[in-house]
Design brief:
Elements (H helix, E strand, L loop, with lengths): L20 H30 L3 H24 L12 E3 L4 H11 L1 H21 L1 H4 L5 H23 L2 H7 L5 H20 L3 H4 L1 H20 L29 H26 L8 H21 L4 E3 L1 H10 L4 H16 L1 H7 L4 H26 L4 H19 L9 H7 L2 H15 L10 H4 L16
Antiparallel strand pairs: 1-2
Helix pairs in contact: 1-2, 1-3, 1-10, 1-14, 2-12, 2-14, 3-4, 4-11, 4-12, 6-11, 6-16, 6-17, 6-19, 8-10, 8-16, 10-16, 11-12, 11-13, 11-16, 13-16, 17-19
Length: about 475
């Protein structure tokens, strides 16, 4: 499939096209390989901070994989109004790590999962239900800026992984040559295969780079004994394990519910931005049904998963970059990714083996992916937005605030804790800034003003109309 010039990127496989099964499985594995480490890292971090047992930690990891897979499959194929029929990979977000840790320590994990149960259905359900009414407030300028900030503020995370991650920090090896070398190797192979080859090698460039990086890490362990690949998560794991409802119980604390309600607003904005990043490959914004279905999927699967002991599932930004990077937009490929994730969630041995991928190997791929996410956001803005004075100011303010809080979170340390939680999120600060400015300042994309009202705000009339906002 090839788009019309200027509408989107050149796609190898369009939204409803099905690559051959063997190729689809490999492409699906590529999506899994890119997201599985950060998705399960959420469980490890929270469980470690709260002080859960190794058995409970392993169980949460298993549930994260299972419900990420189920949510991904539903996103690709839908069940009634739930799902968008878009190639969006779902997983646990770092957005919820701080709140889950704090509430878990203060009130217990039952309060964490009780808050998720309530706010997932209510917050994202209401947003999805009424999105047709609020859609005018989220034009390409706003959603594009959300995509941009998602990519930009994840870059430090990619660099952290490339330098060896938390394990390297604890061992005093953060930024060691062998970590940076592995990340550079993965990055170079992925870029080289994508830019200099054609066919299946280009489509599977990221997966090939991760495989080569993993092999190199094993070789370094064998020769120098670095201990880059840790198989402890595989030893003694059961081959098959099934979910048990109410594993941690459910409690409903008002403060916990309020905090997670704020964070689900962030999650909804991230999903809106990620959806826009995906459909930007076709040179368009998502339609009302797609927005509604994706948000319903976020909320309902997050709430359902909380009963079994998993953290909220939302769209995974790294995988948005894979679509732009490879030109494979097929939702059937992502559906296969979901099946693979669900299988991993039912088999702790397989899931444990996959999570042995060293942080540095993963970091090389993440740096590339989050950069592509940011680039797709810029592309969405440029395609559908005239960069006049008004819109340039909105871009400047929104990205300035978002990146400012991402790099200097202590700047708002004097605010109440609830305000720090809310305004300390780069995505929500960027989105709110863009939303408010775009709404109140006259302009073509403002929901309160028409094109004639917008004219006085521009530096000069646009000699040729830009792409439609529709």
């Amino acid at each position: 499939m090839t788009n019309e010039p200027g509408d989107g990127i050149e796609l190898e496989y369009g939204l409803d096209e099905k690559p051959p099964m063997a190729k689809s499985i490999l492409l699906g594995l590529q999506h899994v390989a890119v997201m599985i480490v950060p998705a399960t890292a959420v469980a490890y971090i929270v469980a470690g901070n709260v002080g859960l047992s190794s058995a409970d930690t392993a169980y949460i990891v298993q549930m994260v994989l299972l419900f990420s897979g189920l949510a991904t499959v539903i996103q690709a194929y839908t069940i009634g109004p739930v799902g968008a029929k878009l190639p969006i990979v779902m997983g646990s977000s770092f957005t919820f790590v701080g709140a889950a840790t704090t509430i878990g320590i203060e009130f217990g994990m039952a309060a964490v999962f009780g808050a998720i149960l309530v706010t997932g259905f209510v917050v994202e359900g209401v947003i999805g239900w009424q999105f047709k009414r609020i859609k005018p407030f989220f034009p390409p300028l706003v959603t594009g800026l959300v995509v941009v900030i998602i990519g930009l503020y994840l870059i430090p995370t990619g660099m952290d992984y490339a330098a060896g991650g938390s394990a390297a920090q604890e061992a005093g090896e953060f930024g060691a040559v062998h970590h940076i070398g592995l990340a550079a190797l993965v990055l170079a192979i992925a870029v080289g295969l994508n830019m200099l080859t054609r066919g299946v090698t280009r489509l599977l460039s990221i997966l090939a780079a991760i495989v080569v990086g993993y092999a190199a890490a094993l070789a370094l362990d064998f020769v120098y004994g670095f201990g880059l690949v840790d198989f402890s998560s595989v030893r003694g794991a059961d081959p098959v394990a099934f979910p048990s409802p109410m594993h941690f119980g459910l409690e409903f604390e008002p403060i916990a519910i309020l905090v997670f309600a704020f964070l689900f607003l962030v999650s909804a904005m991230e999903t809106v931005g990620d959806m826009s990043g995906v459909t930007a490959a076709e040179g368009r914004n998502p339609d009302d049904r797609e927005f509604r279905g994706a948000l319903f999927n976020d909320g309902s699967l997050s709430s359902l998963g909380s009963i079994f002991g998993t953290f909220p599932v939302t769209s995974f930004s790294q995988n948005v970059g894979i679509i732009s990077f490879t030109g494979v937009m097929s939702r059937h490929v992502v559906g296969i990714s979901g099946v693979i994730l669900a299988i991993l969630g039912l088999s702790p041995v397989i899931g444990g083996f996959v999570t042995t991928i060293p942080s540095a190997v993963f970091g090389g791929a993440v740096l590339l992916m989050v950069g592509m996410v940011a680039a797709s956001g810029f592309r969405l803005i440029v395609l559908h937005t005239e960069l006049n004075r008004r819109n340039m100011v909105i871009v400047a303010v929104s990205l300035g605030l978002g990146l400012g809080i991402a790099t200097t979170p202590e700047a708002i340390s004097g605010l109440p804790n609830a305000a720090q939680t809310f305004f300390g999120e780069p995505v929500i600060l960027t989105a709110l800034s863009a939303l408010i400015l775009n709404t109140i300042v006259p302009g073509e994309q403002s929901p309160l003003f028409d094109a004639e009202d917008a004219a006085p705000v521009d530096d000069k009339p646009n000699p040729a109309p830009g792409p439609s906002d529709d």
